Amino acid sequence: MKKILSLAMILLMIAFTFAGCAKAKDAAEEAVSKAIEAAKSGESMESAAQEAVQSIQGNSDSDTASEFYGAYIEAKSAVLDRLMDGIGNNPDTMMSMFSFLGVAMSDLSLLPAMYFGLGETEVGVALAVMGAKDVTYSEQGNQYTITYKDADDQESTLTGTYDKGRSLVAGGTTDGKENVYAEIYRTAFGYVGQFYFIADDGTTTLYQVSVSGADGAFSVATGIDRPAALTGNESVDFPKNAKEWYAINGSTITGVTSEGKSVSFEYVPSENEG
Fold this sequence. Notes:
By secondary structure, the protein is of the alpha+beta class. Helix content is 34%, strand content 30%.
């Protein structure tokens, strides 16, 4: 009972930190109630608290498209950093690091999404710092459009639709030609996402990722058609449907390389080596 009461007090403080309106407070109180029931049924304190906080965040009115995308990028980067560190330091998987190079390009292509919902002035200033010019921004309800020119006067447009607290779907063009399509969904365990890139020569690449705390999975596939839309009901293992994938669960890294070789080894952070 002491643990349950402590959990309730902690979550109530968190609730009122997040809550800026009655709606958010109601969501917080409901989350606390569910957490207490979970603790009574034997669920761990950590799991109950994490579920409650996720519920509060998902119902908070401060959850903008910009914050949603930023939280996803931060969570995804934490998982990919661990995967890349482990794969790059393992002699059997070192060459697989090249499969991760395109991930940085995908983040760069979607960078304007960081400013969805922030207003025309903020978007213009932010992109100008990056060297963009002739920036225009429009916002209609939960739909956003950003258009700008780069140093070579190529015009890029990124559009996005944000389902508050649930998903962000974006598509981009350069000089009127589609080159980017991306989806991000918040799930019960964290996030799932996919990024479809079309190069100038028509070559296609699909990256899929799942994030569950510090764990997750990543896959890459080339020369394929546009993927089916995500639903948000995918499992944490959904990237493993690809021919090449890598996953980390705790301290274990598993995967299948581009050559079709299965790998499994224990991850030792590079700063701990020696």
